[in-house]
Amino acid sequence: MISIEDISQRIISLLAEVLDVNTNKINTESSIENTRGWDSLMTVLFIVSVEAEFDITIEMEDAEHFTSIERVTEILSKNYLE
C-alpha cells in the first residue's frame, strides 16, 4: 500500500508538470481556486497524468472532484490505491 504522503507528493509533482511550474509552487493546500493556471483543461490533463502514473482509470464521478491536491489524494487513497 502506498502512503498518503507518497500519493500526495506524486500528485504535487504531476500537477506541477501539467502546469509547467516548479513543484515549490504546488502544495497540499493547492486547489483549482488558488492555483494560477489550473483550469478545466489543465484538470483533464492532470487526470490523464494521474491515470498514467498510477496505472488506473478514474471514474467520471471521481474526476469531477479533482479540484484540490487534498481531494485528489483522498479519492486515490480511498478508491484506487487501497
What does this structure look like?
With 82 residues, this protein is an all-alpha fold. Helices cover 56% and strands 0% of the residues. The chain has four helices and no strands. It is globular. 23% of the residues are buried.
SSE topology sketch:
Layout: H1 4-19, H2 40-54, H3 60-63, H4 69-79
Helix pairs in contact: 1-2, 1-4
Quick synopsis:
The relative contact order is 0.20. α1 packs across α2 and α1 crosses α4. The protein is globular, with a radius of gyration of 11 Å.
Query: Radius of gyration in whole Å, from Cα?
Result: 11 Å
- Indicate the structural class: mainly alpha
CATH topology: Non-ribosomal Peptide Synthetase Peptidyl Carrier Protein, Chain A
Under the CATH scheme, which architecture would be assigned?
Orthogonal Bundle
Helix-strand sequence: HHHH
For the biggest sheet, the summary is: none
> Helix fraction?
55-70%
Instruction: State the distance separating the first and last CA atoms.
Output: 6 Å
What integer is the average pLDDT? 96
CATH class: Mainly Alpha
- List low-pLDDT spans: none
CATH superfamily: ACP-like
